[in-house]
Design brief:
CATH architecture: Clam
Order of helices and strands: HHEEHEEEEEEHHEEEEEEEEH
Oligomer: single chain
CATH superfamily: Lipoprotein localisation LolA/LolB/LppX
Radius of gyration: 19 Å
Low-confidence stretches: 1-22, 260-267
CATH class: Mainly Beta
Number of strands: 16
Helix content: 10-25%
Distance between the termini: 26 Å
Number of helices: 6
Largest sheet: 16 strands, mixed
Mean pLDDT: 87
CATH topology: outer membrane lipoprotein receptor (LolB), chain A
Shape: globular
């Protein structure tokens, strides 16, 4: 499929701009740690907002880079367990640049302006091709609000006030004290690194996610506005209507002409 046929960059209304140099990986505590039997309780206090977590809604201002492309977008987002997600790319005017909806492992991605659709692909594959984030809906929901899954195990305390706990063989949480209360400051999850900042009521409003795979670097920052937890969301929120006559596209089409490819019109 030709770039003219897909025209995704135009549809997203400015989602991508040409990138600069690669970003540095997030810092992690250094020095010799000591055992900290209280670490699991400290982690529980830092993630108290995760108790009974169900739905999440937010406006996400996304920026950063994927590979050699710079990303900038405003998204309306909604999540519900076990694996439901809806993302809408807000355009300056008219219909959204795209709508992604999934109520299970399979996503429907619609470009209303182009009358094009990607239907039935796995959520991680679609998010990977679309935004360089090959995560499932539940992982993305939990990362955004700092609620990693797993039971807190071995605890360590590092110089500088960092406390860490393991949550499984590939997950590690980092807690520190901010304004007199423990908060989740960072998370390592299956090769991804997340850093948190701008806490309000114990929940970070800025989340940076980073992954380096060889020469390929994903480094994105999500600023969360209008964040709400555990609102009742109808099942219809995770559905999207496919326009009549919409032309099917594939993951290969999306990768070849994704919203993250610079058009040369924005700098």
């Amino acid at each position: 499929m030709t770039g003219r046929a897909l025209r995704v960059a135009s549809a997203v209304a400015g989602l991508a701009m040409l990138a600069g140099c690669a970003s540095r990986a997030p810092a992690r505590p250094e020095g010799t740690p000591t055992d900290d039997p209280a670490a699991p309780q400290t982690f529980a206090s830092a993630t108290a907002h995760c108790a009974g977590l169900r739905t999440v809604t937010a406006t996400i201002r996304l920026s950063g880079r994927v590979g050699d492309q710079r990303v900038r977008a405003k998204l309306l987002a909604g999540f519900a367990p076990p694996a439901s997600v809806r993302l809408e790319a807000v355009a300056p005017f008219g219909p959204p640049g795209f709508v992604l909806a999934a109520a299970a492992d399979r996503a429907t991605l619609v470009f209303p302006r182009e009358a094009q659709v990607l239907d039935g692909a796995p959520v991680p594959d679609v998010l990977g091709a679309l935004a360089g984030l090959p995560l499932g809906a539940d992982d993305l929901r939990r990362v955004l609000v700092g609620c990693p899954a797993g039971d807190a195990g071995e605890g360590r305390r590092y110089p500088g006030g960092w406390t860490t706990v393991t949550l499984g063989p590939e997950t590690r949480a980092f807690v520190r004290e901010v304004s007199g209360r423990p908060v989740l400051a960072a998370l390592d999850l299956r090769g991804w690194q997340a850093d948190y900042a701008g806490w309000l009521n114990g929940i970070a409003r800025t989340v940076r996610v980073h992954r380096s795979t060889g020469a390929a670097v994903t480094d994105l920052t999500a600023a969360l506005d209008d964040l709400n937890l555990n609102m009742d969301l109808p099942a219809a929120a995770f559905e999207v209507e496919i326009p009549d006559g919409a032309r099917p596209i594939t993951l290969d089409d999306l990768r070849a002409a994704s919203p993250l490819q610079a058009t040369g019109q924005e700098r």
